[in-house]
Amino acid sequence: MKVDTLLEIIGASFYTGVPDSQLRALCDHLMDRYGIDPKHHVIGANEGNCVALAAGYHLATGKVPVVYMQNSGEGNIINPVASLLSDKVYQIPMIFIIGWRGEPGVHDEPQHIYQGQVTLKLLEDMDIQSVVIGKETTDEEAAQAMDRFRAAIAAGKDVAFVIRKGALTNDKKVRYANRYTLSREEAIRHIAEAAGEDPVVSTTGKASRELFEIRESKGQSHQYDFLTVGSMGHSSSIALGIAVHKPKTRVWCIDGDGAVLMHMGALAVVGTEGPENMIHVVINNGAHETVGGMPTVAGKIDLTAVARACGYPYAVCVEDPAALDRELEAAKSRRALSLIEVRCAIGAREDLGRPTTTALENKKNFMEYLKRAEALC
Fold first, then answer.
1. In Å, how far are 210, 278, 327 from 334, measured between CA atoms?
2. How far out from the chain centre does Cα 101 lie?
3. Which 8-state DSSP code applies to residue 354?
4. Based on the number of CB atoms within 10 Å of its own CB, is 155 exposed (0-12), middle (13-18) or buried (19 or more)?
5. Which residues neighbour 56 within 8 Å (Cβ) at sequence distance 6 or greater?
6. Is the Cβ–Cβ distance between 103 and 165 less than 8 Å?
7. Sign of the torsion formed by the C-alpha atoms of 69, 260, 126 and 55
8. What is the per-residue pLDDT across 310-359, written as a single tens digit (0 to 9) for each?
9. Quick one: which H or E segment has residue 70?
10. pLDDT per residue over 8-63, tens digit each?
11. What is the mean pLDDT of the chain?
12. For residue 231, which of 365, 56, 110 has the smallest C-alpha distance?
């Protein structure tokens, strides 16, 4: 189905969401049509943030907004859906467009499997009527589904279109870029070199995939790394938990700008705890690059100032390999919580692979290494 046809059927004029590769056609269409425009299209920090923004739009205009997301974002909307939108509270109607990763019977990455199994059940539990849109769905069927939704919307209820892989198409594919030249993979190569045999917690998406392949290319063990393949935005909190309970071990966190924004409150917790054995590296390309390259607001804010305001005793921004190397070595010798923001280009190798070990193998090997590393300190 053409994405502009679906949007015409829905008939909304305000969209907000968190980008998803399964919804690339939708994201490209919105960026091509509106760009980032607070009147019509906003990419939020997380899905709950988007629901609240959309609620404000409804309160101001009386119109029905659209919130788009990957199904992994359902967890972030449960609270505002149940305690704000619900017809038992404020009766704020909303239309969700949800990319169905991990759909049963469709091969996907391990972090999507369980989420895919419970996607429709979670919507049902939240009293959100839903319809599945697949490649075979006709324009007429989509229009009929929207007609069925209208009664629920009029009663202040929420509805959802759940999008199967490849169901939406768009004639134009938008290319995203920035002014930086250092690639994320090259930055991670420098970080891995500096970290040596220290444990590393890496964030969701291509960053973890690149770290895995860097270890492979160097013939290094994967035991040093915990690959946070799911739970976007939580890698720094995982690293904090490790650093606090393994105080003799230096712990690295390779984070991303979209992940930091998604749960920015973690910066305040990390900064307040101030573990002197933690080095937090944020790779900032100002984009949700893993799911297509749509922009984040991180390209326009000073993350190092935010980190210092949250209690990080040291925070610096770099954008070239030499400066990165200097700051990595300085952080190692500083023995104080440090944040290094690395400004990078958007993009990744076309042949970038995925981890060949299972998530459970990764966890067990990493935990065993943490025990050995602490014993040697």
1. 27, 11, 10
2. 14
3. -
4. exposed
5. none
6. yes
7. negative
8. 999 999 999 999 999 999 999 999 999 999 999 999 999 989 989 898 99
9. strand 66-70
10. 999 999 999 999 999 999 999 999 999 999 999 999 999 999 999 999 999 999 99
11. 95
12. 110
Residue 328, burial from CB neighbour count under 10 angstroms (0-12, 13-18, 19+): buried
Has residue 146 got a pLDDT over 70? Answer: yes
The pTM score is 0.94
Per the listing, tokens 């966190």 go with: 253
**Tokens coding 201:** 């917690």
Structure tokens of 372? 């050995």
| Cα distance between the two ends of the chain | 59
What does the alpha-carbon distance between residue 23 and residue 157 come to, in Å, rounded to a whole number?
23
Question: What is the CA angle 43-49-52, rounded to 5?
Answer: 110
Average pLDDT value for residue range 204-217? 94
**C-alpha span between 298 and 261 (Å, rounded):** 7
Contact 70/23 with Cβ under 8 angstroms? yes
Say how many C-beta atoms besides its own lie within 10 A of residue 66's C-beta.
Answer: 24
Residues in the chain: 377
Residue 377 binned pLDDT confidence (cut-offs 50, 70, 90): low
